[in-house]
Amino acid sequence: MARILIAEDNPDSLYLLQQMLEADGHQVIATSNGAEALEQALRQSPEVIISDIMMPTMNGFRLCREVRNRPELKKLPFIFYTATFLEEEDRRLAMSLGATRFVVKPMESPQFAKIIQEVLELHRRGELPPPPPPTVASDALLAMYDTSLNRKLAETVEKLRAEHRALTRSEERLKEAQEIAQIGHWELDLHSGILRWSDQLYRLLQQKPQGSPASWQDLLEAVHPEDRQRVAEAQRLARVQKSAYTLDYRLLLADGLLKFVHERCQTQFDDGGEPVCAVGTIQDVTDAKLAEGNLAASENRLRQVIESMPVGVWLADGNGQLLYSNPIGQKIWEGGRLVAIEHYDEYKGWWADTGEPLAAEDWGMARAILKGETSLNEEIEIQCFDGSRKMILHSALPLLDGDGTKLGAIVIIQDMTQRIRAEKALQESESRVRILNAELEDRVANRTAALERANQELEAYSYSVSHDLRAPLRAISGFANVLLEDHAGELSAEARRLLGRININSEQMGQLIDDLLAFAQMDRKLLHKERIDLGKLVDHCRTMLQGELKQRQVQFKCGPLPEVFGDRAMLQQAMFNLLDNALKFTRNTAEAVIEIGVLEKPDGAVYYIRDNGVGFDNRHQGKMFGVFQRLHRNEDFEGTGVGLAIVHRIIQRHGGKIWIEGEVNKGATVFFTL
Q: Cα–Cα distance between 161 and 363 in angstroms, integer?
C-alpha cells in the first residue's frame, strides 16, 4: 500500500477518488488545488501524485512543472486524471511536462486501480522511466500552457453560456409547465423567515405579488382553518426527522372559494445538521379531487347496484384474474375463490346437455378473456364449495374500452335450481292433472249418462204421477159427485158433508200433484233470457189474481221497477207465487197492504215484496223454502207447501239469492236478487 496525494478542486470527484483508493488500502492526502498539493508533497513525501488540470491558485500543468523542477520530488510518478482536457494536444503537453500517465475521466475503478498499482510497482523497482527533459523553452512552454488554458477557458465559458441559455429556456418551460399543471413553488429561509413565492403560487392563491417578502404565516392563513394544524405539524416533523413530506389539504381563499391542493416539501440542512431552508411545490388538484369524489360516488352507486342485483356477478381483469363477486354470486356457489385464469377448474361444473366436465378454459370467463367471446344463458350444473349441486344459467362477455382494448370480463349467473325443480314438479303435476282430467271426463261421461237415465226415469215417473195418480183422483171425485147429485135425498146430512170433504181433498191432492211436477221439472227447463219490464210483469200477475182481489180491500204500493234480464215464464211464476202468498196471509187483515219495490245496494239491486199479514216467527226462517214446509194449519191457510220452494229454485237458476224476514202478526218481507 502507498501514500497517495490527490489534487482535485471538485469535492464530489475528490470524495469518490479518495474512497476508491482507501478501499484498496492506500493512505490518501487530499488537497483542493495545485499550490496546496505542492506544499503537502514537500511536507509528507507521497509515493504517487494524482492531479486534475483545471484548479484554482495553481492548475495541474504548473503543479507538474513545479514537481519536476524540485530535486526531492522530480522522480515521483505523476498521473493526470481529467474530464476537461481531452484533446491529443492536451495529452502531448502533459507528457512533455513529465507526466507518468494521462487518464481521462471517468474510468472504471478496477481499471484505474490497476494503473495505480502498475505505476507503484515500476517506481518501487526503479524501473519507471525518468521524465523526459523539456522539449521546448520555458517561455514557449508557458505559452503552450496559456493557449491550452485559454482554449479550455473559452470552451468552458461557451459551455456555461449554453448551459445558461438552456437553463433560461428550462426555467421558461418550467413556468409554462407549472402554469399548465397549476403548480406553484415556494422557498422558505428558516433563519430570516422570508418566504419567496412563484408567480403561479400567487395566481393559485388569487393574490398579487407584495412589495415586501411574504412569510410562512401568510401561506398558513390561506389554509383552511381545519387543516392548518396538520400543515404546521408536517413542517415541524420534516425538520425534526430530516425527511421530506407530501400532504393534501384545502385552501380557503378570500372570496370563500375552496381549493384542494397537493404539497411536496423538502428541508435542507447545513453541515452541522441545522435546517437552513425549506422548498416546496403546491399543486391545485381541485378538479382531480372533485372528479375523484364523483368517481368514488359513481363506483359506490355501481357497487350498490351490483350488490343488490338478484343475480350473481363476477369480474376479472384483462389477464383473467378474478377480482370481485357480489353477495348473490358467493351465495350461489356457497363461497368463492378469486383465482387466476389457469385455476378456473377449482370451480367444478358440467354441461347440462352432455354431462361433460368443464376445464379451466371452457368457462365463459376464460373464453371472454382469451378469445373475446360472448356467451349467453349456458346451462351448467355446478358443484358448490360446500359439496351441494345446483343448476345455473351462465353468461359472460368481454369488457372493452372506447378503443376496443380489452379491460377484463364480466360473468352473470342465475340459480335455476328451484325453477327447474318447480318446472319438473309442474310437469309432473300437469301429467297428474291430465290423468285426473281423463278420469274426470270418464266420470263426467258416466255421470252424464246416469243423469240422462235418471232424467228419463224422472220423466217417466212424472208421467206416471201425472197419469196414474190423477185417474184414481178423478174416479174418487166423480163417484162422490154422483152420490151427491143422484142420491142426495137418500143420504144423511153427515154423509153429504163427508162427500164434500172428499171432493175438496181430491182437488187439493190434484193441486199438490201439479206443484210437485212443476218443482221437479224446474231444473230441466232451459232458460230463455231476455230484457223484461218487471213493473209490467207485476201488473200481469195482479190481473191473474183479480178474482181474489174483487172480494177484498187490498192496497198495493208499487214503486218504479227496473228492467231485468231473465226467463219471462219463470220470473212470472215466481212473482205470481209471492203475490199469491201475500194475498193469502193478509186474508184476515182488515186493511191489507202489499208493497213491491227495489233497494239499491253496493252489490246491486235487491227486490222485495212486503205484506202486513200474519207474519211468522223468525226462528223458522230456515224452513221457509223447503218442500212441504208449512208454518200454518191447512184449515187456516190452504196450500201445498211447494210454492216458495219453486220460487227459491227459480231465483237460484238466475244466479240470485232469496231470503225472508218476518214477525208474528206484523207481516213478512221476501227479498231477492237476480
A: 67
pLDDT for position 176: 56
Q: In whole angstroms, what separates CA 151 from the centre of its chain?
A: 76
Q: Among 50, 52, 55, 74, which Cα is nearest to 134's? A: 74
- What CATH number is given for 309-415 in this structure? 3.30.450.20
Distance CA 602, CA 562 (A): 16
**In Å, what is the CA distance from 337 to each residue of 7, 348, 358?**
67, 12, 17
Tell me the three state secondary structure of residue 79: strand
Is 554 strand, coil or helix? strand
Q: Which amino acid is at 589?
A: T
532-546 as b/e: b if 16+ CB within 10 A: bebeebbeebbeeee
DSSP string, 259-303: EEEEEEEEEEE-TTS-EEEEEEEEEE-HHHHHHHHHHHHHHHHHH
Residue type, 51: S
| Secondary structure letter of residue 488 according to DSSP | G
Q: Which of 56-60, 132-136, 485-489 has the highest mean pLDDT?
A: 56-60
Confidence of residue 77 (pLDDT cuts 50, 70, 90): very high
Cell (9 digits) for 503: 171432493
By CB atoms closer than 10 A (0-12, 13-18, 19+), residue 116 is: buried
Q: How confident is the model at residue 609 (pLDDT cuts 50, 70, 90)?
A: very high
Q: pLDDT tens digit string along 490-515?
A: 778 777 777 776 766 666 566 556 65
DSSP string, 398-449: EEE-TT--EEEEEEEEEE-HHHHHHHHHHHHHHHHHHHHHHHHHHHHHHHHH
Whole-prediction pTM value?
A: 0.36
Tally of CB atoms within 10 A around 97: 24
CATH number of 182-290: 3.30.450.20
Same fold: 182-290 with 416-524: no
- Domain ranges across the chain: 3-135, 182-290, 309-415, 416-524, 527-672
Q: How many helices (H) and strands (E) does the chain have?
A: 19, 24
Which of the four pLDDT bands, split at 50, 70 and 90, describes residue 29?
Answer: very high
Q: Please, what's the b/e burial string for 360-379 (b: 16 or more CB within 10 A of its CB; e: otherwise)?
A: bbbbbbbbbbeeeeeeeebe
Domain 527-672: give its CATH code: 3.30.565.10
With cut-offs at 50, 70 and 90, classify the pLDDT of residue 5. very high
Whether the pLDDT of residue 268 is over 70: the answer is yes
Question: Which three-class secondary structure state does DSSP give residue 666?
Answer: coil
Is 3.40.50.1820 the CATH number for 3-135? no
Residue 549 pLDDT > 80, yes or no? no
End-to-end CA distance of the chain: 132
How many angstroms separate the CA atoms of 493 and 479, rounded? 18
How many other C-beta atoms can be found within 10 angstroms of the C-beta atom of residue 47? Answer: 18
The CATH number of 416-524, from 1.10.287, 1.10.10, 1.25.40, 3.30.70, is 1.10.287
Query: In this predicted structure, what is the pLDDT of residue 157?
Result: 64
Rounded CA-CA distance 335/341 in Å is 18
